[in-house]
Structure formats: C-alpha cells, structure tokens
Amino acid sequence: MAEWHVTPDYIVNNWTDELLNLMTEKLVERKGKEADSLRGKSHQDVSAEELSTRSRGMIKVVKK
Fold first, then answer.
1. The whole model's pTM is what?
2. Residue 41: inside a domain
3. Quick one: pLDDT at residue 15?
C-alpha cells in the first residue's frame, strides 16, 4: 500500500479485483527490474559525450 500511497481502506472500497491484480503484477515486475539493476544485470557503458547529452547539462563531464 505504501508503494501506491493509498490506504488499505481505499483499496478495498475503490479498487476492483482486476485493478489490484494488475497493480500487484506491475509491482512485482518493477521490483524484479530494480533487483536486476542492483545486481548489475542492466549495466550499460556510456561514453562521456553521451552521458553529457543524456543529462541535458545537469552533469558536468570532465575529460582527463
């Protein structure tokens, strides 16, 4: 419930069984992706130029 920022009462009174099942499936998928990322399975090498481009100027890349 904390994941969705709702109370148990709200879920019981406003969500259908189908919505609860869908939200639970998506939560399991997201947690799996987070776990894979922490284990390094989704590691991607990025060049300094691409990092700078992707960050839209929020990260300053200094080449040595």
1. 0.56
2. yes
3. 95
